[in-house]
Write a structure and sequence with these properties.
There is one protein chain. The protein is mostly beta strands and about 450 residues long. The protein contains 5 helices and 23 strands. The chain has a 21-stranded antiparallel β-sheet that branches.
Length: about 450
């Protein structure tokens, strides 16, 4: 069901948009929104693998409960009725593997290794009705569904960060990145035509379009049987660093103290690209899938019932026979979603400050924007709390919060831009969640 849910969605990546982690000055991972941010502690910061800096980001015009009824049974009719318009979504996940950061005097050095997944897409919601009804109601008719688009990138990011305090007012930072492409899939503007061949008395399902795919796979087209076969082809390099499908990126930023109370910061993130060349294939749909035995999927008690999930599996099994695959003839480049972060902080006193930020993400001609205002409060010497509001695309207001606890040898933090949806994730259309555990080690001699 998860694969099916992703296959009919188009999902982009907007990284750290609207996440109030950037307002937590005690957490060194806040520098990932602006590489010019300096560590507040001179201890060595070591992130806990798989946890420290884990990120989940989701923006869509639907939530996961659209697919399920109150009894938690999946229903495409419920999805169709709840959505009522073309679906679109964007998502990002980051899984940290290594994180190290250390400040020495006026310099902060950081190193990170993480797995990143970017997904984006859209789909014609009438396709949900087609899945729910099955083929039987369409015999004798001609219908077209689409477009359906889906794109995903999975890559490993190796990053080095350097921040320097130039003078009492100005700090600058840079984070160069090396990207190792692991998996890529892109299907754009797929259309599905359903028509009846009265002469042969068959219903034809005709997919029109093509898709690109790259990863630890082997794709072969056999012209004798007219079938494209995709098989896994893992090597040791797929688990570590394979110097194929490599890309590069960079983050740049600076902070400037206007006066003793007010500081402004500007950063641009993910200015870079990935590449497609090694084990990369272009696949084109050709011909039609002919059905002589029709079925319906809407009424389990009526004749000719075929469960929607099983019907989709059968359709998927037929697609390789209607696909021609070719190797890439030259290297192709994929730009990353670029993010611009503008931020201002005004310190009220030693324990309180106000934060304002605007986060703009641009990708493939589309822009998303988060405008945020947060109030920070330091409770004692170890606990920091930030709470406020986010305005998404000038249309949705979401309350968010962030908090951190910094002890002698450990640091815990959590940040989200949508408190209600953190409590009810199944209803989330917009959610940015980040959390982590850092270990702190003193580098001063005893």
């Amino acid at each position: 069901m998860i694969i099916l849910f992703a296959a009919i969605c188009r999902i982009p990546a907007t990284a750290q948009n609207g996440n109030p982690l950037q307002f937590l000055s005690e957490v060194s991972q806040s520098s990932q929104s602006n590489p010019a941010f300096q560590n507040k502690t001179e201890k060595l910061v070591i992130g806990l693998p798989l946890l420290s800096g884990a990120l989940l980001h989701w923006n869509a015009n639907f939530s996961s409960d659209y697919l399920f009824t109150e009894k938690f049974d999946y229903s495409f009719d419920h999805f169709y009725q709840s959505l009522g318009e073309p679906g679109n979504a964007e998502a990002l996940a980051t899984l940290p593997l290594v994180y190290l950061s250390h400040r020495n005097d006026k310099r902060t050095l950081s190193f990170s290794l993480s797995e990143r997944v970017l997904l984006w897409g859209n789909f014609d919601h009438e396709f949900l009705k087609f899945i729910d009804q099955g083929l039987l109601p369409y015999y004798g008719k001609e219908e077209e569904f689409g477009p359906i688009s889906f794109k995903t990138q999975f890559f490993r990011e190796l990053a080095f960060s350097y921040a320097k305090q130039v003078n009492k007012k100005l700090s600058v930072g840079i984070r160069p990145k090396i990207l190792f492409g692991r998996f890529f899939y892109d299907i754009e503007n797929l259309n599905v035509v359903v028509q009846t061949d009265e002469e042969r008395q068959v219903l034809q399902v005709i997919p029109n379009g093509d898709y690109r795919i790259s990863g630890p796979i082997d794709v072969e087209y056999d012209p004798l049987i007219g079938k494209t076969t995709i098989t896994t082809d893992f090597t040791a390099g797929d688990y570590f660093f394979k110097f194929k499908n490599m890309g590069a990126g960079i983050d740049l930023g600076f902070t400037y103290q206007l006066n003793k109370q007010t500081t402004v910061a500007v950063a641009i993130n993910d200015l870079g690209f990935t590449t497609l060349n090694y084990k990369a294939f272009n696949n084109t749909f050709t011909g039609s899938i002919d059905y002589t035995h029709l079925y319906q999927s809407s009424d389990p008690d009526a004749p000719y019932y075929f469960e929607p999930r099983a019907a989709l599996d059968a359709l998927t099994d037929s697609l390789p026979y209607k696909t021609i695959a070719e190797d890439f003839t030259k290297r192709q480049y994929e730009l990353l979603p670029v993010k611009l972060n503008l931020m201002a902080t005004h310190r009220l006193n030693d324990r309180m400050k106000l934060n304002f930020s605007d986060n703009l993400t641009y990708y493939d001609g589309k822009a998303n924007n988060y405008l945020s205002a947060y109030f920070n409060l330091f409770l004692g010497t170890r606990f920091e709390l930030s709470s406020g509001l986010n305005l998404y695309n000038l249309g949705q207001v979401m309350p968010g919060f962030a908090c951190s606890y910094t002890g002698r040898g450990i640091q815990l933090y959590l940040a989200t831009n949508n408190i209600p949806r953190l409590v009810q994730p199944s209803k989330a259309k917009n959610l940015n969640l980040r959390f982590g555990v850092n270990l702190l080690f003193s580098t001063e001699p005893n």
